[in-house]
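user: At home tonight, take the chain set out below, taking as long as you need, and be ready to discuss the fold:
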Amino acid sequence: QAQLVESGGGLVQPGGSLRLSCEASGFALDHYTIGWFRQAPGKGREALSLLKFSDGQTYYADSVKGRFTISRDNDKNAVILQMNSLKSEDTGLYFCAARFGIIQRLTDHYPHWGQGTQVTVSS
């Protein structure tokens, strides 16, 4: 069965960087869109960055554009989220998710989810 595992979260100061990884097992990411979503306490999950694995098509939310970069790691069957210039408002639980087919922004389109990795940006 499909599994997604996030890693790379932690505590970082404002202006710092983190590199998150979403590694898939049980299925190949070919033909899938993989997304990174953030959930703050008491709030829903927000799409931050999306990638169609087969051709590299990407989407970025305005709040992260220019600071975050999503990319493929074909050898590891994984998707990377490089986060730079982190702000306090970036704090939250970061999930990766996958769906078959094209890029979509809403969480309802994604049937496969990881367990999340915590990112805390604080001085």
Q: What stands out?
A: The mean pLDDT is 95. The radius of gyration is 13 Å.
